[in-house]
Design brief:
Blueprint lengths: L1 H22 L10 H11 L17 E7 L4 E8 L4 E9 L2 E5 L3 E2 L7 E5 L8 E11 L2 E9 L5 E2 L4 H6 L2 E7 L3 E8 L2 E8 L6 E6 L3 E7 L2 E11 L5 E10 L2 E11 L2
Parallel strand pairs: 8-14
Antiparallel strand pairs: 1-2, 2-3, 3-4, 3-5, 6-7, 7-8, 8-9, 10-11, 11-12, 13-15, 14-15, 15-16, 16-17
Length: 259
């Protein structure tokens, strides 16, 4: 009897072990993170890859502003729409190119003007660019930039600062008139106006409101309206520069009276 009980217990224990092996251990919850799942999905191509955003605005295209008809010279600029200007400005001359922090207004009427001239008579032409930096009613401003063949700039002095060094003026008032005496480079000029000619008279000669540049017989000329009051000007102060030994030197300052 005892042997039969032992055999029965051994048989039951044997079948219990077999059952446990067949069913396996209870399923454990997955420890895989959402990041791992996402990475697997990317590897399997189930997710669409998004472009990276570096926070920078897309690069703006350059606009052709001017070309020289007889040379391979192009001037381009990047439009700054909120300011109404092109800046910076790039100059390409043959195979060379250089970019400058210059400004030109977007109005095509005032596109950059280009010319070539051997200003220092050394057998090599300089490139002259005249840019319009601002305009409006009674106001106009230009800048002149002169480049060597290697597209390095020969800086032009400040014509307004040079002119102000040699201009003096005085005024005498009568009941309904004003008489101005201007002295430019020690040459005196006298002008009389009615008080009613303008609503605003200036305390000094104002040169900044209307500035133009041109090339004349190898000289760079800065021409500025000499205003005594708003809209009142007897003529233009013209400052001439000559290129000598790779630098601009002041050649002359004179008052060109209005006809």
């Amino acid at each position: 009897m005892t042997q039969w009980i032992q055999a029965t217990l051994i048989t039951a224990l044997f079948f219990g072990i077999l059952t446990a092996c067949a069913t396996g251990s209870p399923e454990q919850p997955s420890s895989q993170s959402q990041e791992d799942i996402a990475n697997e999905q990317v590897e399997e191509g189930s997710l669409t890859e998004m472009p990276l955003d570096d926070g920078q605005p897309p690069a703006k295209e350059e606009v052709l502003l001017a070309e020289h008809p007889d040379a391979s010279i192009r001037v381009t600029g990047v439009e700054q729409e909120d300011q109404g200007i092109y800046s910076p400005i790039t100059v390409q001359w043959s195979e060379m190119s250089n970019t400058f922090d210059w400004v030109n207004v977007v109005n095509p009427t005032y596109a950059p003007r280009l010319s070539l001239s051997d200003l220092d008579r050394d057998g090599h032409e300089e490139l002259i660019l005249i840019l319009t930096t601002g305009y409006g009613t009674g106001v106009y401003a230009s800048e002149a930039h002169i480049l060597r063949e290697d597209l390095t700039e020969i800086h032009l002095p400040d014509p307004m600062a040079d002119a102000e060094q040699v201009i003096t003026h005085s005024v005498s008032q009568q009941e309904d008139t004003r008489t101005f005496t201007l002295t430019v480079n020690e040459e005196a000029y006298t002008y009389t106006y009615l008080e009613s000619d303008t609503r605003m008279w200036y305390d000094q000669v104002v040169l900044k409101n209307h500035r133009r540049h041109r090339i004349d017989n190898g000289y760079v000329i800065a021409s500025m309206a000499a205003e005594l009051g708003h809209g009142v000007s007897p003529g233009r102060v013209e400052v001439a520069y000559e290129l000598w030994n790779d630098e601009f030197e002041l050649a002359d300052i004179q008052l060109v009276e209005m006809q």
